[in-house]
Design brief:
heterodimer; A: about 300 residues; mainly alpha; MetI-like fold; 2 domains; two-stranded antiparallel sheet; 15 helices; flat; B: D-Maltodextrin-Binding Protein, domain 2; D-Maltodextrin-Binding Protein, domain 2; five-stranded mixed β-sheet
Chain lengths: ~300, ~550
């Protein structure tokens, strides 16, 4: 550890100085070490013909054979595209709506109303995806669905969403937002709460109206939170939301064109022959793409506003 | 620099963190490594373990010498839903009696691990892959439960002759040498076949014979065209009934059935779920795939299924229908057909308490249209359609075999495990048939439907059920016996490592297109969708797979 010129501390000095903070981080460090670093050598399974008895490192090395299936399926591009586009929609619309809702909540005067609406919005988050899938099916199915029941009652022709791939991007985004917004808005709501009350007071005294306070105080104060959450989310942009898609779309091939993501495809193609190695190969592919995206986006953020970058 | 390094590490952490899903896999796999490296000192664990197994046998050649001083628990894994409520009580009562016998005879007790039907194949394979001694005895099947892939993956122990002779002597004697041959891979026995149990699991439609007669089909349904006519009549005459409340998973059996009915195709089991490769009755050892060659037939199929869809045979959203209870609905007359195998029909045709249709409608009768009837193309069941294997993760493989030997050959254990407690779950009539006793409740007391022991049933010990309509059943079996051929590929275990990627993609294509074709949900004409399907199969390399299988066939059979 060489001593930096302008009085910066060495790594060891820092450790000593911030020992309390480090100690408080310890559980998280241990957690990540145990669950994210220790299994890393297991990535090797993507390059072997896995035999249960010989274990990962005893199995035969097969090079890139496990990647062959995804590459030769001819679907890699469309799957990656679907996955990324859905995630982009989820991330962007999700955060936008969450910020919006958080601001609305903050502006509410009645404490009672605020609490009640927050709770109601929060609830869907706790419903399991399996149940959501069943709910959606019961709402939308052709023969006995709730929506179609109403449509026939008012004399409109029945709607057939389960045979129409076009409507699903919209439906899935709506379902996602319904489920996640309440939860996501909590983070933003908390950061709004953290804004210095004096600033608000000062703005009020200076005659700023509600919209101006939102525009000039709340939104700028939320910017770091938004950027960091976006960065975090972008790392997972190639990881599809398997629970959502699998439970809602199921295995209906008519809808695959617009709803098939990497996870669901891999699940169908490999889970039935139960191929660990292939599944891990796909996982590795997703991780690498995700890593590249995080590093790139972070680089861009750093160019624009170094303060907000992750590293 | 340091900061950069830290930063990259941090980013890696994050990405690794986001690998939640993949990480989960790696995690469990990682767990495996430690255990498996322990028991495999050398790289070639299989031979290692086998040899240690054999050396162990040398000490214990005679059954009397087997050391059973330690009481062990043997877990038996089967597909089926775990019992609950009263059902569980019945099951526990039976297990208590069974375990008393097992403890006395081999100082072991049995427990069942149920793999519920939802996603059973994934859960089944996942449990096997754990290899931590969770299971000992594994019910398996070469055609529907991945017996061979699991053997190759090292999930099952090699059963040496010595082992079988020592620990499962009765089973060893009762299975003829040629049947053991069918259970070998690379010269090692992995499976114990259920080879002394007569059953027919060729698929077809169970339908209401009385309604078929009303529809003008005096002799019942004997072709797919008759089936169309039958469905059309049912839909008109009984508008409240869904002719067949299918779920979206029946596509492969339906198209397979169609092909059997319209050709001499004999499929090879266990390559993929669609059984897309095989030979013909006249030329068994030339591999082909009818899904590529029989274009006209497939177009006709697509057209007929479109017609069925338009008739309204199934619900409009059949492809998303996962909650169908069609078989139970058939029993109470809410649907008019059930697609499953002959064995299921033998149940549905009989006047059992569960089959309420016969109580409410005295004219009710169930016919069976079996796939392949038109072309007289019926292949007898492979003896490994049900088989028992021993998990390589088992801590007590010897005792597991001893328990199995009892379950399969000991009359007392067999009856308990298959039928339950006499007097509660069944009773034997004067003419030696198995009847249901007073106060029997088919919902809860049917042990047969809980233990799902389909991996070692034994006709020597079977008691025919009194409530089965044996006249009809025996007649059907006799018909089959006249036209059947034996399953010809019992000794063939395909080597698929080099073609696995292609097969995976072919599976996916087959599933996606066939679901649309078999439920008439395709857009465009039948000719177009079949052409598109075959084009996709070809570009996924189906011809290469056929060629690879042919090469393996030539090596084995020529």
């Amino acid at each position: 550890m060489k001593k930096k010129k302008n009085g910066e501390m060495t790594f060891i000095q820092k450790v000593i100085k911030y020992r309390t903070l480090l100690l408080m981080c310890l559980p998280a460090i241990v957690f990540f070490f145990m669950f994210n670093y220790m299994p890393l050598p297991g990535i090797w399974v993507a390059f072997v013909k896995y035999n249960y008895r010989n274990g990962i490192f005893g199995s035969k090395f097969v090079g890139l054979q496990n990647f062959e299936f995804l590459a030769t399926s001819g679907k890699l591009l469309s799957l990656t595209k679907n996955t990324i586009l859905y995630n982009l929609a989820f991330i962007l619309l999700g955060n936008l709506l969450a910020v919006f809702v958080a601001i609305l909540l903050n502006e509410m005067q009645s404490r009672m109303f605020k609490k009640v609406s927050q709770t109601i919005m929060f609830l869907p988050y706790f419903i399991s995806q399996v149940l959501v899938g069943i709910l959606v099916f019961n709402l939308l199915n052709y023969d006995t669905g709730f929506v179609n029941g109403i449509l026939t009652k008012i004399g409109v022709e029945r709607w057939q969403p389960y045979s129409d791939p076009g409507v699903w991007p919209v439906l899935l985004v709506i379902i996602y937002l319904w489920q996640q917004t309440g939860y996501n808005s909590v983070v933003y709501f908390a950061s709004i709460m953290g804004i210095d009350g004096e600033m608000m007071e000062a703005a009020k005294v200076d005659g700023a109206n509600g919209f101006q306070r939102i525009r000039y105080i709340i939104l700028p104060s939320l910017k770091p939170t938004i950027v960091i959450l976006l960065l975090f989310a972008l790392g997972g942009i190639v990881k599809g939301n398997f629970g959502l898609f699998y439970n809602i779309v199921g295995t209906n091939p008519i809808l695959y064109e617009t709803t098939d993501i990497i996870e669901t495809y891999v699940y169908r193609a490999t889970m039935t022959d139960f191929n660990f190695a292939t599944a891990s190969a796909v996982g590795l592919y997703q991780s690498i793409v995700g890593f590249v995206i995080v590093v790139t986006v972070n680089y861009i953020v750093k160019k624009i506003e170094p303060e907000y970058s992750l590293f | 620099m340091k900061k950069k390094l830290l930063a990259v590490l941090l980013a890696a952490t994050m990405v690794a963190g986001l690998t939640a899903c993949g990480g989960g896999n790696a995690d469990s796999a990682g767990g495996d490594t430690s255990t498996s490296t322990e028991d495999t000192a050398s790289e070639d664990g299989s031979s290692d373990e086998a040899s240690s197994e054999e050396s162990g046998d040398a000490d214990t050649t005679a059954a009397a010498d087997i050391d059973t001083s330690e009481h062990v628990k043997i877990v038996y894994m089967t597909t089926g839903d775990a019992p609950s409520g009263d059902k569980l009580d019945r099951y526990n009562e039976m297990m208590e009696q069974l375990n008393a016998i097992l403890t006395e005879k081999v100082n072991a007790e049995l427990e069942t691990l149920f793999i519920s039907w939802t996603d059973y194949l994934s859960n089944y394979n996942l449990t096997l892959a754990r290899m931590d001694g969770t299971v000992d005895l594994v019910g398996t099947a070469s055609d529907w439960l991945d017996a061979w892939p699991n053997s190759k993956n090292g999930a099952f122990i090699e059963l040496s002759e010595d082992m079988l002779k020592t620990y499962a002597p009765k089973t060893w004697e009762s299975v003829p040498a040629e049947n053991w041959e069918m259970c070998k891979y690379n010269g090692e026995i992995y499976l114990i076949p259920e080879d002394n149990y007569a059953q027919w699991t060729n698929h077809g439609f169970t339908y209401r014979l009385d309604w078929a007669k009303e529809a003008g089909l005096e002799n019942g349904v004997h072709s797919w065209e008759d089936m169309t006519e039958y469905f059309r009549y049912v839909k008109e005459a009984y508008p409240d009934i869904i002719p067949w409340d299918s779920d979206g998973t029946q596509y492969a059996t339906m198209v397979g059935g169609w092909i059997a009915s319209h050709s001499n195709y004999v499929p090879i089991d266990g390559i993929n779920s669609g059984a897309m490769w095989g030979g013909t009755k006249d030329d068994l050892y030339t591999v082909y795939s009818p899904y590529v060659t029989d274009t006209d037939s497939l177009v006709e199929f697509a057209k007929m299924m479109k017609e069925w869809d338009e008739i309204g045979v199934w619900k409009t959203d059949v492809l998303n229908n996962t909650a169908s209870t069609n078989r139970d609905d058939y029993r109470i007359g809410k649907v008019a057909a059930e697609q499953h195998h002959t064995q299921t029909w033998t149940d549905l045709v009989s006047h059992t308490p569960a089959n309420k249709i016969y109580e409410t409608d005295e004219d009710a009768d169930s016919g069976f249209f079996y796939f392949g009837e038109e072309s007289q193309n019926v292949v007898a069941l492979s003896i490994t359609h049900g088989a028992m294997a021993v998990s390589a993760g088992s801590a007590n493989p010897e005792r597991a075999l001893m328990v199995y030997d009892l379950l399969r050959n000991d009359p007392e254990c067999y009856k308990l495990f298959c039928y339950g407690i006499e007097g509660i779950s069944y009773e034997v009539t004067d003419d030696g048939l198995r009847a249901t006793p007073e106060g029997y409740n088919s919902e809860t007391d049917n042990i047969n439907g809980i233990t799902n022991y389909w991996w070692g049933r034994n006709d020597d010990l079977e008691i025919r059920a009194a409530d089965r309509d044996w006249d009809k059943i025996d007649k059907m079996y006799a018909d089959y016996d006249k036209i059947k051929i034996e399953y010809p590929y019992g000794q063939f275990v395909a080597e698929v490592d080099d073609i696995q990627a292609k097969i995976s993609n072919i599976n996916e294509i087959h599933t996606n297109y066939m679901k649309q074709i078999a439920f008439g949900k395709y857009s465009g004409t039948a000719e177009e969708i079949v052409a598109e399907y075959q084009e996709a199969l070809k570009s996924a390399g189906i011809d290469d797979v056929t060629a690879a299988l042919q090469a393996q066939f030539d090596a084995l059979y020529k």
